[in-house]
């Protein structure tokens, strides 16, 4: 147990001028279950990418089984005994389970593939691990947890001595989680060392031997799990008290702005009723597939074929397309910043003014000086860095891109701002600023809907949280009563 | 639902055969069917290569120009004998294919752009080499036999069709190389993560496509008895159409060699019926266009119903 299998010595990683990781020193013991925790942007994924051979460290060395190693590719890492389960499942959907396990290493005779041997080996491997999946099935016909199991089987087939798992429990339901945990237990019996990244602290306290906390790219501490508890761990992760982190909505909540009654969307949503008041922050929680992230799209006219009544400021409202919704006063910051929100090749100015160009119209042309002036004011107000509105938005950091996206909706007057995953892929410092900015919007008489998969964010920001499961609202929690446990309880509630 | 991709082309072919039988009593005769197969030989060669290319998520627009160059070079080098011509032709295909593959892997040029460039270049090379006119020479009887001979009453080109598809099938389904072709089309980054040498597989795929196109060019010269620099025009479009109608996804990763075989037969049967009915050959490309639209429509419908099934 006390043999060090992996040692990170002074690992740093620079991207441009920014340090994603700085001077990380950790020793992982053979056979241990080592958890790594930290906020988004703390450097966890960079660390994993270094261990798995995606990135090389800028400084420092990795020692694996006493030898200094340089993994130039994930395949090389895997062949040396270090396998990684990335957050996104690595698979070829149209090929079979067996092929996915042995892709690149198929049993062959001369130039011919030995199909029989391939399926035989796969079957034995899966049996050995007590994973009940038919190796003939195509990957795309499996559930998410089954696909994770196949990935684990693949790692085992490489005789992995160290298995790195990045958020393996995300998107899994309770039953699927049990399957995952069972497989992990099976791996531990084989003395496989596990590095486990998860946001779900409960899992970590249930399984881990030790935990390493990262914050802002730095190594905060490595602790025996018995020496800490959830509250203390969270404090180490964010480096401050929770209270300072999230601003509190001090505005008085007004009258109802939006009401949704009996909303149905065949196969996706049913019996959804909700209301939103002026200057209120409404949170929407729910696991993937619960429908929580669909309601926001209905309200912005991105989904068709729904039924039900929606009223906006007392008048009936039936969202048909984004253009109409914008003109009725709805603003929307989508979950996928890069593909749905930004015009990557355009400047910060163009990205912000794009929805309000009408406002700058003069004799049929865009009044450039007015546009520039307002864009400059916004950049100042939201402290977007760099403060140059001519910078192409693609060169900004995630947090600054997000601020510019929010700025887009401040050039005109809106009633409701819908924010999907407002701080996804944003570093901790920028996160705090975004929360501050969001909070400031309330004094402009806006009402906010925040759809997020990050529970601390919802708990910290929202006046009220609606929890979705199985396409409908299974729970409503007031700020005073909301906890992560309660949200998860509602989110996992079965709905027929 | 997924089976539809496989069975829809097959069902279409069966319907077309029945329609053909009703429209002309000459349709369902041995000689007509052999005829039909025989004149598909060049398309068959190119379509097999194109299937592999498209399965990796790429495209090869240069095949028509390779056909033309191989056609005139084989007409002009009759003195080398059959084996000599064959080596030369294989070399032409392999070199142009390798150029395509290297340009698009090492220099990361889009396959469309890379092969568009070689398509233009080698068409021009061919016309320059021949001064624009056909190469009329003494085509040797042995060379002529390649496309015009027959074994046991079966025309040789018909045999080529069957052989090239069988080889294609074995390569795609029973060699690691073939499975890697599918894997790359299904996820290039993942394939790289899994240790597949993506660049090498891709280069080989374009070499195979080039070689098959060059063989098709040689076959044309053998059939018509001269080296025609204008041969192979729009062959790339025909081949792409065959592959798509056969159910292979243009984005790669999904499709079969068998599907392309059926796709080829669908076009061959339609053209054959039109010939039997004495419909102008100028109309034929119009019909080809319509078939492509219908196939694209059917596929997009399929994807749509699949996507909505996924949400539920």
TrEMBL record, chain A:
Keywords: ATP-binding, Cell membrane, Membrane, Nucleotide-binding, Repeat, Translocase, Transport. It comes from the Bacteria. It is a peripheral membrane protein. SUPFAM superfamilies: P-loop containing nucleoside triphosphate hydrolases. GO terms for molecular function: ATP binding; ATP hydrolysis activity. Residues 6-241, 248-495 form the ABC transporter domain. It is found in: Cell membrane. InterPro entries: AAA+_ATPase, ABC_carbohydrate_import_ATPase, ABC_transporter-like_ATP-bd, ABC_transporter-like_CS, P-loop_NTPase. This is Sugar ABC transporter ATP-binding protein.
């Amino acid at each position: 147990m006390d043999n060090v299998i992996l040692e990170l010595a002074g690992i740093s990683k620079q991207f441009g001028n920014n340090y994603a990781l700085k001077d990380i020193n950790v020793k992982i013991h053979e056979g241990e279950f080592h958890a790594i925790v930290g906020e988004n942007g703390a450097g966890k994924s960079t660390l994993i990418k270094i261990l798995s051979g995606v990135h090389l460290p800028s400084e420092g060395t990795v020692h694996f089984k006493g030898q200094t190693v340089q993994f130039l590719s994930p395949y090389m890492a895997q062949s040396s005994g270090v396998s990684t389960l990335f957050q996104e499942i690595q698979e070829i959907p149209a090929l079979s389970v067996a092929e996915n396990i042995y892709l690149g290493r198929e049993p062959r005779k001369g130039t011919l593939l030995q199909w029989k041997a391939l399926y035989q080996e796969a079957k034995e491997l899966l049996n050995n691990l007590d994973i009940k999946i038919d190796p003939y099935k195509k990957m795309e016909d499996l559930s998410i947890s089954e696909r994770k199991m196949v990935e684990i089987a693949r790692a085992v087939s490489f005789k992995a001595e160290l298995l790195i798992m990045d958020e393996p429990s995300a998107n899994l339901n309770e039953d699927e989680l049990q399957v995952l945990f069972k497989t992990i237990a099976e791996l531990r019996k084989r003395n496989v060392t596990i590095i486990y990244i998860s946001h779900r602290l409960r899992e970590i306290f249930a399984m881990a031997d030790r935990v390493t906390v990262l914050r802002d790219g730095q190594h905060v501490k490595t602790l025996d799990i018995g020496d800490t508890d959830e509250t203390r761990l969270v404090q180490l992760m964010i480096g401050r008290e929770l209270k300072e982190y999230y601003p509190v909505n001090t505005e008085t909540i007004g009258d109802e702005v939006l009401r949704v009654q009996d909303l149905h969307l065949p196969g996706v949503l049913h019996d959804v009723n909700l209301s939103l008041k002026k200057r209120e922050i409404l949170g929407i929680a729910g696991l993937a597939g619960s429908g929580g992230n669909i309601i926001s799209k209905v309200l912005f006219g991105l989904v068709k074929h729904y039924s039900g009544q929606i009223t906006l400021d007392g008048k009936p409202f039936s969202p048909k397309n984004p253009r109409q919704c914008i003109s009725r006063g709805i603003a929307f910051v989508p979950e996928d910043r890069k593909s749905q929100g930004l015009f990557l090749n355009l400047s910060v100015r163009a990205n912000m003014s794009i929805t309000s160009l009408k406002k700058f119209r003069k004799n049929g042309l865009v009044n450039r000086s007015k546009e520039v002036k307002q864009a400059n004011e916004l950049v100042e107000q939201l402290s977007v860095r760099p403060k140059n509105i001519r910078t192409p938005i693609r060169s900004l950091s995630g947090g600054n891109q997000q601020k510019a996206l929010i700025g887009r909706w401040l050039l005109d007057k809106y009633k409701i701002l819908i924010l999907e995953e407002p701080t996804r892929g944003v570093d901790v410092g920028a996160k705090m600023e975004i929360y501050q900015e969001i909070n400031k919007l309330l004094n402009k008489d806006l009402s906010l809907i925040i759809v997020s998969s990050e529970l601390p964010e919802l708990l910290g920001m929202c006046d009220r949280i609606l929890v979705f499961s199985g396409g409908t609202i299974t729970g409503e929690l007031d700020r005073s009563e909301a906890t992560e446990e309660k949200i998860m309880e509602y989110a996992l509630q079965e709905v027929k | 639902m997924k089976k539809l991709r496989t069975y829809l082309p097959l069902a279409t072919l069966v319907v077309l055969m029945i329609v053909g039988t009703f429209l002309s009593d000459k349709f369902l005769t041995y000689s007509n069917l052999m005829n039909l197969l025989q004149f598909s030989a060049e398309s068959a060669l190119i379509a097999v290569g194109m299937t592999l290319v498209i399965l990796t998520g790429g495209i090869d627009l240069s095949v028509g120009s390779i056909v033309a160059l191989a056609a005139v070079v084989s007409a002009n080098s009759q003195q080398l004998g059959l084996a000599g011509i064959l080596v030369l032709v294989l070399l032409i295909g392999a070199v142009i294919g390798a150029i395509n593959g290297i340009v698009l892997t090492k220099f990361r040029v889009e396959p469309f752009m890379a092969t568009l460039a070689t398509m233009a270049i080698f068409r021009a090379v061919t016309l320059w080499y021949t001064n624009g006119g056909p190469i009329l020479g003494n085509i040797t009887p042995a060379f002529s036999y390649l496309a015009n001979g027959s074994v046991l009453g079966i025309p040789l080109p018909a045999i080529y069709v069957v052989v090239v598809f069988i080889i294609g099938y074995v390569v795609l389904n029973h060699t690691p190389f073939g499975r890697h072709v599918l894997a790359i089309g299904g996820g290039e980054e993942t394939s790289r993560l899994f240790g597949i040498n993506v660049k090498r597989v891709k280069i080989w795929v374009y070499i195979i496509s080039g070689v098959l196109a060059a063989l098709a060019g040689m076959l044309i010269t053998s059939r018509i008895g001269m080296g025609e620099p204008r041969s192979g025009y729009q062959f790339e479009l025909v081949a792409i159409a065959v592959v798509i109608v056969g159910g292979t996804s243009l984005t790669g990763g999904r499709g079969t060699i068998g599907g392309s075989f059926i796709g080829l037969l669908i076009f061959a049967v339609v053209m054959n019926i039109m010939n039997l009915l004495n419909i102008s050959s100028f109309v034929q490309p119009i019909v080809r266009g319509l078939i492509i639209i219908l196939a694209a429509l059917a596929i997009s419908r399929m994807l749509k119903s699949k996507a909505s099934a996924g949400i539920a």
